[in-house]
Structure formats: C-alpha cells, structure tokens
Design a protein that fits this description.
3 domains
C-alpha cells in the first residue's frame, strides 16, 4: 500500500496502444469524436494509414494480448526514453513474447522477425510517425487531463488515504481489502505484488477496461481510463491558455498541479532545469505558484489563483 504511486505524465507508448484500440472499435467513439475525425484525416494526409493497418494494428490488437516489451516502464519518462528501451530489448525476450503473441492471436509472418534489428527499427519508425501525426496535436489535452487526475488523486489521498484512491479509479475497478478487483478483464488471473507496489498510469485513450502487463515478473503497472465527456471540437480551439502564457510556461504551470520540484517541472514540460527555473520565477512573481524550499530542493505548488486559472482553461 505504501508503494502505490501514480505516473506523473502520459506514457506515450501506452497511449499509442490505447489510441490504436480506439481506431479499431466504435465502443466509446462519442468520447473521442473530434480526435477520431482528425486522426483518420491525419493518417490519410500523411500516407500513414496503410502502415498503421499493416504494422501497428496487428501489433496492438484490441481486447487481446500484445507483447509487453512494446510498453516498457521507462516510457513514463517520455517517448524517446520508451523507444530507446524498446530498441534495447534483448532478442531472446522479444522472441519469447512474440511466440506467445502468435499462439494467442493470428499474427502476420513478419511478427517473428521482430527480434531482428531491422524489422524492429521499422516498427519504431512507424510508431514515431503515428505519434507525431495523431498524439502530438493532442498532447496539451493529455497533459492537462492527467495533471488534473493527479491533483484529484492527491486530494483523495489527503482526505481518506490510499483506500479511496484505489476505490474510485474507474467503474470497473473495486477495492476490497486486500484485493483490487477489475471487472471485464479479457482473461481471469491474479497478479501478486509481493511488496513491489503498483504504478497507476491514468490514460486518456484507455476506454472502460484497465490494462496490465502479462508477465508477472515485470514491475506491476495498471493502465486505467480517465472519465470522459463528449468532445465536440479540437483541443486547440478550446484551450487558449498557451496564448496567454506561452506554451512552455503553460506546461510548467501544469507540471506544478500536483506539486513539482524544478527538475520534475523541467522533465514534465520537456525543457532544461535552467529554463524551468526561469518560468517558475515568472509564475511565482505573477502569483500563480508558490515555492517552498526543502533541504536542497524547491517544491512548486499552485496558488488558489493558479489553480483557478488552470480550471477555467481546462481541456475537455
């Protein structure tokens, strides 16, 4: 219980997987209506639609097992970190997981060549292109929603402890001490944490059913869905905050929603610590954040004014 934690930003590779599932089914389509329209158009305009159908969809089938090495833990540090780890996966591990994959679902013959560097690099090329085309334009929305989720979970922790955090994750998740039960999972199995804790990864594109890794020896994670309201227009038209503060300063402000050191704010917003320090100074002078020194680090948190500004300009 003391090792339960929540990812501090989107996991790009998990979001790629979940978004590909959204393209494969109409379930929950109403919640992603504007994204679905723009994604389909973007894939067509960039000529990626064929590669997505022939390469990515077979790798990430909906409601079925797909190889764990495609969503490494290191992806929580960003797309580049995740892809570097993916490319560094030992060939025997890739061969073992792809063999299991082939047994569990119908796969094209090239899946067995993933342990070869050339084939894996081609998959990575398509993953990057897909992310650039359909995820990157929505990154502001993803970061806003996930930081809001962390703030909400932090409030639940302060009010009632870890039990409320676990008991209110999603309608399909129930906390019954000492078990976290998940309804409608594709297969029936028990995952034993054995003192390792659990990383909760809130996901914008995950719909209804949470997802975990198949290998019980890997660090335990649970990808769970955010609650959605219908989206009727692209996020750029509904999120004017970057026009007010600038994109980088907005990212730094959002990074402080659940509290962040200067280093954490820099990592979450994709800038250097020096740049993040400059922006936190401006935000503090504007009364949007407060900074508190603890030993050798400085913790930045939202002021009521900063929280109200983020809430007013929250993405859908």
């Amino acid at each position: 219980m003391t090792r339960v934690r929540i990812a501090d930003g989107p996991h790009p590779l998990w979001e790629i997987a979940a978004s590909l599932h959204r393209l494969q089914t109409r379930h929950g389509r109403w919640a992603y209506a504007s994204w679905h329209r723009t994604a389909v158009s973007a894939l067509h305009d960039t000529g990626l639609d064929s590669a997505v159908k022939s390469v990515l969809v077979p790798l990430f089938p909906r409601a079925s097992y797909f190889p764990d090495f495609l969503t490494p833990l290191e992806g929580k540090e960003g797309l580049t970190a995740g892809i570097d780890t993916l490319l560094a996966t030992p060939p025997p591990e890739i061969a073992r997981e792809t063999s299991r994959f082939a047994r569990s679902t119908g796969t094209p013959s090239w899946i067995h060549r993933l342990s070869e560097g050339r084939t894996l690099r081609e998959v990575v090329r398509v993953l990057r292109a897909y992310h650039d085309a359909v995820i990157t334009p929505y990154e502001e929305t993803l970061h806003a929603r996930l930081h809001a989720e962390r703030t909400h979970r932090a409030g639940a922790l302060f009010r009632s402890g870890v039990e409320e955090v676990l008991g209110t994750l999603a309608p399909t998740i129930r906390w019954r001490h000492p078990f976290l039960e998940i309804d409608a999972y594709p297969d029936h199995r028990d995952v034993h944490l054995d003192g390792r804790g659990l990383l909760l990864i809130p996901s914008y594109f995950c719909w209804n059913t949470p997802v975990t890794l198949a290998d019980p020896d890997l660090p335990p994670v649970l990808l769970y869905p955010l609650h959605h309201a219908p989206a009727t227009s692209p996020p750029a038209e509904k999120t004017p905050l970057p026009a007010l503060l600038g994109a980088t300063r907005t990212a730094v402000l959002r990074a402080t929603a659940a509290g962040a050191t200067t280093t954490e704010a820099a990592r979450r917003s994709g800038v250097t610590p020096t740049t993040a320090s400059h922006h936190t100074t401006v935000l503090r002078d504007a009364g949007l954040i407060a900074s508190h020194r603890h030993a050798n680090t400085v913790l930045h948190t939202l002021t009521p004014l900063g929280a109200a500004l983020l809430k007013q300009h929250a993405a859908p």
